[in-house]
Amino acid sequence: MPVTTEIPRAHPINDVRIQRPSTADGGEMWRIAWRSTSLDLNSSYAYLLYCRDFPDTCRLAYANGEPAGFLLGYRRPENPETLFVWQVAVDESARGRQLASRMLDDLVQDLAASDVPVRHVETTITEDNTASQQLFRSFARRWGDADVETAELFSAAHFPDDHAGEVLYSIGPIDLPSPN
Ligand SMILES: CC(C)(COP(=O)(O)OP(=O)(O)OC[C@H]1O[C@@H](n2cnc3c(N)ncnc32)[C@H](O)[C@@H]1OP(=O)(O)O)[C@@H](O)C(=O)NCCC(=O)NCCS
């Protein structure tokens, strides 16, 4: 996910809707990832599979009635109390309006109240992705000033292509039912 983005100028958004995706939404997620031009673009099949198998840990955001953002996540199989956020993206025209934060908050609020409550959130971020770093640090502040630990997860050498290294952000424990 190597990218450096700047906060774009404010764009009027009157109506935001965050929802759990269904299989029919996989194509929209792929389109948003494609439009971002900076995310690792997975196959369209991968987004469809996520929507089919992990909809409870994914989100789709609509702004002014149009798909404008998505989040792909899953509970770690060896530790279901940990949510791993793999990809989050917002269309450029809708950035800087808390859309990504709202998707994260909506998701974690649901999962924190589930039978197996999520207590930790992980993601990986490249060194140059300021927007994503700020997104997750801001998330930690809202959720009771949770700790944020960072450590290299995958170095550039792990990747078979020219992908940059990915730093693991571990956030938690999360003990609140909802953000501050
Ligand atoms: C990262 C991304 C999803 C953020 O979406 P967004 O809806 O604009 O984020 P938010 O408006 O919720 O902002 C969250 C926080 O990050 C900060 N932030 C957002 N973009 C920033 C930027 N470019 N530079 C510095 N801070 C930034 C905001 O100020 C906000 O902080 P605050 O809560 O303290 O005010 C968006 O920039 C994006 O889609 N980037 C391309 C894809 C990508 O890199 N995804 C992450 C890796 S998978």
UniProtKB/TrEMBL annotation:
One of its GO terms (biological process) is ectoine biosynthetic process. Residues 16-166 form the N-acetyltransferase domain. It comes from the Bacteria. Gene3D superfamilies: 3.40.630.30. GO terms for molecular function: diaminobutyrate acetyltransferase activity. Keywords: Acyltransferase, Transferase. Pathway: Amine and polyamine biosynthesis; ectoine biosynthesis; L-ectoine from L-aspartate 4-semialdehyde: step 2/3. Transmembrane segments: none annotated. The keyword Cytoplasm does not apply. The keyword Acyltransferase applies. Coiled coil: none annotated. Its EC number is 2.3.1.178. It is an enzyme of class 2 (transferase). Belongs to the acetyltransferase family. EctA subfamily. This is L-2,4-diaminobutyric acid acetyltransferase. The gene is ectA.
